[in-house]
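Dear colleague,

Following up on yesterday's call, I've attached the two folding results inline so they're easy to grep. Please treat them as preliminary; we haven't cross-checked anything against experimental data yet. The first protein's sequence and structure tokens come first.
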Amino acid sequence: MIRDSWTTKYGLILAMAGNAIGLGNFLRFPVQAASNGGGTFIIPYLICFFLIGIPLMWIEWGIGRKGGNLNKGTTYGIASKLNTPSFVRISCLLGVWVPLIVSIYYIYIESWTLGYSIKSLMFELQSNVNLSSDKMNYFTNFLNSYTGFGKISSLGFQIPSIFSYLCLLVTVLINYIILRKGISSGIEKFVKIAMPTLLVMSILLVAYVLTIETENSSAIQGLNFLWKPDTSYLLMPKVWIAAAGQVFFTLSLGFGAIVTYASFIKDSDDIALSGLTSASLNEIIEVVFGGSIVIPAAVAFLGISGAIVIANSGAFSIGFIAMPAIFDGLPYGSFLCFIWFFLLFIAGITSSIGIIQPAITFFSEELSMKREKAVNLVILTVFIFSNFIVFFPNFLSEFDFWAGTIMLVVLAIFEVHLYNKYISPKSAVEEINRNSIIQIPSYFNFIFKYILPIILLFLFSSWIFSDITSDSSVILKNDFWTLLSRGILIIIFLFLYKLIRRKD
């Protein structure tokens, strides 16, 4: 089978950056920064970026390039080809399961941004009230009505608006069209248009946001809050754990997507510089633009204390409630709201096509399906199960916690093991430095083999401990919808396992 490939290094870097640049850059990062000391958060964040993010990202690039030589594009396929023990292969199956599960709920959230951008152009995101509290209440009710989160039927199901469901259908269709065309003709061509568009829209929005002044505060004060560190926060373990977690999310580590994308590069390609370039582009977008839109705008509208409160209530609150409330009543507010949500939509699409790709590669390579058939099957699966997120309570939080949080670290641990023991056992640095313009220092061997596994195990333990000791623990929940969602997560994994067992 002739595998598709990237036609240009420029397209590859944009695709890798686009895979990482998603809703988390513009929603999750500002929330984490505001909740963990503002500018202080940047310090542990950058340390974790260089100590965890870059090394793990290079490892995933290395695994992917090796996979391309083996005509394999998933962690499972690569582990199988290298004749690893069965427990390693089964664990590496998470490289298919994780992105598949994440794509199921991610694509639904992505559709909200499309719906909100359309509503903005139709001037339907206008509250016609003056008080800040009234605006926040209006857009809270709007979100609950749109998603169905605040509208539960007598049988306990969520009831979203018809328009919201139509936007889900359109979003699924757009992802399908891009993925159907393949790597070079679909994903690469799309990101070459989407990423510059995203960059231009980000610049325009930042330029406007920084001019906002209200009786409460100004956007410039919000910018000062974001970049002025309070070193006392550096002594708080939760700040460092949050920073490490954000690095995971922002670089799409442990999702399986980087491995799959990297499997379509040539063996002679430079992965050290390419990986560093794509990661740096992602960081610029996140820190400079993601940090210069939401927090400054929220501070101008609500003041520093108010912005922290809304940030602590979560990414949905600040992205879909606070931001429309901020733009409401401003000159050209509806147009600004459109730019904001369409920016999120573009960022979401560049990520979702990357997240879905590992499952497509799995079905086409491991089950010998034609790519078109694999795309049809995966997109249909994503759409069918996305309806569980749409209509069933607790499914979104459960899918996100297990697939989008905990199992990311588990997969990363096995990726490090796979790379160190089976791909580059003598010198982890040697494989990454091969054909590279820049040469990684030899001390990274120590980081790859010892520091990184220890940090990942600590991060996994910390997340588990943090959850079970909190008042709103996800792990300890045991209501009907929670247990049902976990059952479905297990069934999907067992189904994938059954498929590979049947093949073997």
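Below is the second protein, in the same order (sequence, then structure):
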Amino acid sequence: MAPRALAITSAGLVTALVAIPLVAVFDRAGGIATLNAADWAALRFTVWQALLSALLSCVFAIPVARALHRQRFWGRETLITILGAPFILPVIVAILGLLAVFGREGMLSQALMFIGLPRIHIYGLHGILLAHVFFNLPLAIRLILQGWQDVPAERFRLVAQLGLGPAAMFRVVEWPVLKKTVPGAFLVVFVVCLSSFAVALTLGGGPKATTVELAIYQAFRFDFDIGKAATLAVLQLGFVGIAAAVLMRLVGAPKTDVGLGREQVFLRRMTPMRKLLDLLVIVVVASFLLLPILSIVAAGVFELPSLPSSVFQSAKHSLIVALASTALCLLFALPLATFKLGQTISLFGFALSPLVLGTGLFLLIQPYANPFELALVVTCVTNALMALPFAVRAIGPAFAQINADYGRTADMLNLTGWARWRWLYLPRLRRPIGFSAGLAAALSMGDLGVIVLFADPDRATLPLQMYRLMSAYQMEAASGAALLLLMLSLGLFWIFDQGGRRGFRA
């Protein structure tokens, strides 16, 4: 099959894999009349927690991004890289780490008891907000920090030469940056939190903290009301789509300032107090993000040798699913990254939640086969579609740059078809391909979305097995499983990413 034909085929397959399950969901939906007061309460709570999560993430991200931008210290770039770790961290692992730090038996509760204060109750709205801020704060920091870094260096030099104070600095330079970047960061976090499932499942704490996705899961697994689950899925899809469209229109397309590329200079005359405050902000946020991860390592290292065989069997299932979904993701991403329509099609997976897509696939499979026997296959396909937008976003710009730099030379040499891919594209795409593969594998390893709808005890993945251990209050075994899952997720990401980097240098 020629590359062009493969690109068209990939676009058609991705469209079909998204559209056909959605058609099945719409067809099975029972209508608004099937929803009760609890379902509408779940909708309101979903919107409310997403708004609060996005607001808190952006509010806390602003001073951190500001401090990271204007301060230079040893290890700064490493710290910025580490701050992105929660993005690829398995959700269930992070939740266990948050429980170890902020739970009733966590480090913070123990410290509060020592000084005579009551323990922290992490379940409910405040627990969901805590987890969402943990996951999305690094993303908001990176987006806002990028906005500051895009400001021309000449603007900072002029402000420094004029000797403007902090108030004028904020008005002239910082406020325009915030107006441009914060709405976009808010949008991204808001949409992500609208479709958050694992956090609500583990930290929801009852009917008052039930999201739409959790209501879909309950309708499937406990009420066996597929029509109601489909209706909720339609409602979730529609609301996310409308919210994203409205917010995108409000945000608009950001403008890019162009400078001479000189090093940015912030205010030179920074008081020791301002430097101390910046350092304090960085230390507090870094501790908030790193302590849960370190607590998992500390608690799980002694439990690894005594893990039951079911945990290792689940780890094997997760590895198979992760590698298969990574291969499928790259198989779709490489052709789609070559043309604009394909890049747009890749975003279909981002507009859906895994649970909504899983609902549609369940409805399609049920009349012809036992969905539980195909749990790992469905999970593999869903994870590939969820990772597809990130892979195309990483590969697409690199592909365009290669064409800009070498396209005419390749045309003069009559380098076409598969030969063009072999000798021109693939050697220069190794780095983004490696990063995309690592990201897809890590995200797939930690997924707890679709598998909960389909899996039986014999086909559980490691995140699901870990959730079952936590539900059974086997926290020691859960800690060991969490460390194993953490090592596998980060290990896969590192192997693929480093493989791409070394291939790129070669």
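For the second protein, one point worth flagging: Residues 252-268 have pLDDT under 50 and may be disordered.

Best wishes,
A.L.
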